Structures are given as structure tokens and as C-alpha cells.
């Protein structure tokens, strides 16, 4: 079971799909998908959303986005994710013709999940993105809530960005969300897309289940993806490097209820 995906570099006309994991027949994931696309200035990427809804995230650079009817111009607030500013995104339901045009060289994340009902296209403005600080001690990170479960813009998708400074753990204490057992826990698959500053570094990510049917510890580099079909999934960031990751989550119900590994629960009970 390969949970660690390296950049793939599939070229189109004026764009490169640098990384992707899509929920398709035979894949590890049934609900979640992600594609990272780099687009040259003035070039376009287009796609008909047949069954999926999609959140288009302006990861770096500026873009125009169209759904065939509505047009959103000059989206994007940063040239690097490590400016740590919230950015613009656009949500589209299935049946829409997605068109992304790069104003300057842009890196775009396309986050997919099944479209359960038709919903309006929506520009998620950078200044509407909630910023949250989580954790203490060496367990601190900053979260940009692009599509949280408190927002009813989407029918399936959950999308967040997370920043973690060197020497800290993130997605920690180890937690999981792989059982449809509400209100205690929800079933959500997850994909991590990672970037690092400086880019030559790495983070460690472990994915493991209680029965250890999944138990992988990965050295994850800039531009890599990690798939989480089930299990706990903490991230450790070495001193001297900063970590960014973009998460997409989806499952049978659009709610995020996680369950901490009982062996680590004591960490949250410290003064």
C-alpha cells in the first residue's frame, strides 16, 4: 500500500500537473482527490467536473477562475505559501466547466470530493478565511480554515491549510477519523500536500491504525503527497524548517469529529 506520492510532472499546454491523487476505481481513496497544477502566465487549465465538486485554491500566484457562467478575476494573495497569508479559493459543484487562467506563474490546488447536491459557485475570499492557532509547547500550528464543516458552501469537501514551525509536531496528539461513529468520530479520508521552507528539507509523517494493518513512517519532501485512507497521521517538523500542508477531507457525512490515540491522551492534560 503506497501512501507516499512523489511529484509526477505530467505536461499539458502551458501547464504541468505536478502531483495528483484522485478517487477512482481501484484507488486507495473513495471520497477524496487532489491535483496540484502549475500554470504559466497567460496559459489555461480546463476541466469538466462530471461527478465531483471542486475547491480551487490559489496556492501561489494570481489566477482568474470561471465556471462557464461566473468569472472571478485576479485571485490569490501571495507568491509563496510561506508568506502565511490566507488566500482566495473558489468552490464549484459538479456539472460546471472549470477554467483557470494564470495571470503570473501560479500553483493551484484542485480539491475534489463527490458532489452530493448542486450548490452555487462561490468565491471564498481570503479575508473570509478563519485563522486558528492550535496546540501548546512543541505542539503548535496555525490553521487556515478554507472550507470547515461549519461552512455549508460544499456538500462533501473539507479543506484547510496548516503551518507548523520547526521543532513542533502537527496533527498531534495523533488522531484519526476513520469510523462512522457519530457523535464520537466521523469517517473522513484525507490527503496531505506538503511544502517546506527551505525546500531541501523534510518532515516525518506516520500513518498507523490500532491493529497496525497500516503502519508507515515516511520522510516527506517538498511537493509530496501523503494519503490517509484510515488511521492516525501525525507530522513532525525538524528544527530549522517550516512546514506547510494543504488538507482535503471527505467521507459519507460532512463533519469532522476526530478520536485521539488513547496512548497520547495524557499530553492534552498537562498544565
TrEMBL record:
Please verify whether the record's keywords include Lyase.
no
Q: Name one GO molecular function term.
A: glucuronate isomerase activity
GO biological process: one example? inositol catabolic process
Positions the record marks as coiled coil are none
- The domain of life is Bacteria
The UniProt record lists the EC number as: 5.3.1.30
The record, for SUPFAM superfamilies, names: RmlC-like cupins
Pfam families documented for this protein:
KduI
Print the keywords alphabetically: Isomerase
Q: What is this protein called?
A: 5-deoxy-glucuronate isomerase
Q: Which organism is it from?
A: Paenibacillus herberti
Q: What is the lineage of its organism?
A: Bacteria, Bacillati, Bacillota, Bacilli, Bacillales
Amino acid at each position: 500500500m503506497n501512501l507516499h506520492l512523489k511529484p509526477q510532472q505530467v505536461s499539458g499546454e502551458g501547464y504541468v500537473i505536478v502531483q495528483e491523487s484522485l478517487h477512482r476505481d481501484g484507488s486507495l481513496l473513495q471520497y477524496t482527490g487532489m491535483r496540484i497544477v502549475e500554470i504559466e502566465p497567460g496559459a489555461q487549465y480546463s476541466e469538466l467536473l462530471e461527478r465531483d465538486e471542486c475547491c480551487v485554491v490559489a496556492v501561489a500566484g494570481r489566477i482568474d477562475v470561471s465556471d462557464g457562467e461566473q468569472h472571478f478575476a485576479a485571485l490569490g494573495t501571495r507568491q509563496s505559501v510561506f508568506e502565511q497569508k490566507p488566500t482566495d479559493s473558489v468552490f464549484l459543484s459538479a456539472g460546471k466547466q472549470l477554467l483557470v487562467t494564470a495571470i503570473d506563474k501560479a500553483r493551484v490546488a484542485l480539491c475534489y470530493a463527490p458532489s452530493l447536491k448542486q450548490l452555487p459557485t462561490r468565491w471564498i475570499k481570503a479575508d473570509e478565511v478563519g485563522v486558528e492557532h492550535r496546540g501548546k509547547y512543541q505542539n503548535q500550528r496555525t490553521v487556515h480554515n478554507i472550507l470547515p464543516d461549519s461552512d455549508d458552501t460544499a456538500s462533501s469537501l473539507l479543506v484547510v491549510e496548516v503551518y507548523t514551525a520547526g521543532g513542533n509536531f502537527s496533527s498531534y496528539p495523533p488522531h484519526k477519523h476513520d469510523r462512522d461513529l457519530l457523535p464520537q468520530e466521523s469517517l473522513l479520508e484525507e490527503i496531505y500536500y506538503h511544502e517546506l521552507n527551505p525546500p531541501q528539507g523534510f518532515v516525518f509523517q506516520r500513518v498507523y491504525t490500532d491493529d497496525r494493518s497500516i503502519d508507515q513512517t515516511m520522510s516527506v519532501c517538498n511537493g509530496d503527497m501523503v494519503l490517509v485512507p484510515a488511521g492516525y497521521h501525525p507530522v513532525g517538523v525538524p528544527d530549522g524548517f517550516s512546514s506547510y500542508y494543504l488538507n482535503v477531507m471527505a467521507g459519507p457525512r460532512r463533519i469532522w469529529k476526530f478520536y485521539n490515540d488513547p496512548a497520547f491522551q495524557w499530553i492534552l492534560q498537562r498544565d
